[in-house]
Design brief:
about 20% helix, eight-stranded mixed sheet, binds zinc ion, alpha/beta, 2 domains, single chain, 14 strands
């Protein structure tokens, strides 16, 4: 596991809550923003900031210090599509007695909107943007959340980056919310075939460390929901016709 370090100026800027949350993140799927290689060893936290926007990113200790970087005034904060490294986990999860196909996306680096002073609340910038696009705040996993129109998941079976199964999640503007590999558990495709949709959850869950552990996975998701750190929506999911995969 990478060992995360932050400088005093970064710790001060984040405040106690932000520093604790930055230290909680899993860096298992993270990339160094300087050299773009996987994170390992000692990792430094860098905060990019612009107005009330904070984006926590990571660099190898050898690639740079833990510091605050002011974004140029004309540089907009990244939007959910195209802006973030994401980990994606597929699972079949019980919702009030129905087994539903779910996708859980988690940004590796965290971006927050800060309201008010240094002790202020941090709101996930990604969750805030998705709520503005019709996603619902999830407090319990009892029923599938309402659908969002024009969001779509496209499965590329056997056509991921390294020949594994791949997944594209596109927003209504065609922005790539996610493009990468996904591991599909038994029964997931059948459930998607039956419903024509999957539930897409997005939040700070700590999933990369829970891979393959069903009960721990469901627990982590419920905990994130109870903590108000999960948003979700039903999205249409299609698979390409067999001929298109040739
Ligand atoms: Zn690096």
């Amino acid at each position: 596991m990478p060992d995360l370090q932050m400088s005093d100026e970064v710790r001060q800027l984040l405040g106690p809550e932000g520093a604790a949350r930055a230290a909680e993140v899993s860096l298992a799927d993270g990339q160094c923003v300087h050299c773009h290689r996987p994170l390992d060893g000692t990792v430094h936290l860098v905060v990019r900031t612009h107005g009330n926007f904070l984006h926590a990113v990571y660099v190898h200790a050898a690639c740079g210090p833990s510091e605050i970087v002011e974004l140029p005034a004309d540089e907009a904060p990244p939007v959910p599509a195209d802006g973030y490294d994401m980990a994606m986990t597929a699972a079949v999860l019980d919702h009030g007695g129905a087994d539903l196909p779910v996708l859980v996306a988690e940004t590796v680096s965290k971006a927050y909107l800060v309201n008010g002073g240094p002790a202020a609340e941090l709101t996930s910038a990604v969750a805030a943007a998705l709520l503005g696009q019709g996603f619902s705040l999830i407090s319990r996993l009892r029923a599938a959340p309402p659908p969002v129109a024009e969001w779509v998941g496209v499965l590329l079976l056997g056509h991921g980056p390294a020949g594994e199964d791949g997944l594209l999640v596109l927003d209504p503007d065609g922005g790539q919310f996610y493009a990468g590999a996904v591991e599909l558990p038994d029964g997931w495709l059948q459930h998607v075939g039956r419903y024509g949709w999957a539930v897409l959850y997005v939040g700070d869950v700590g999933l990369p460390e829970l891979r393959g552990e069903g009960k721990a996975f469901a627990r982590a998701l419920r905990a994130a929901a109870q903590a108000g750190r999960l948003v979700g929506a039903r999205i249409a999911v299609g698979t390409p016709p067999p001929t298109a995969a040739a």
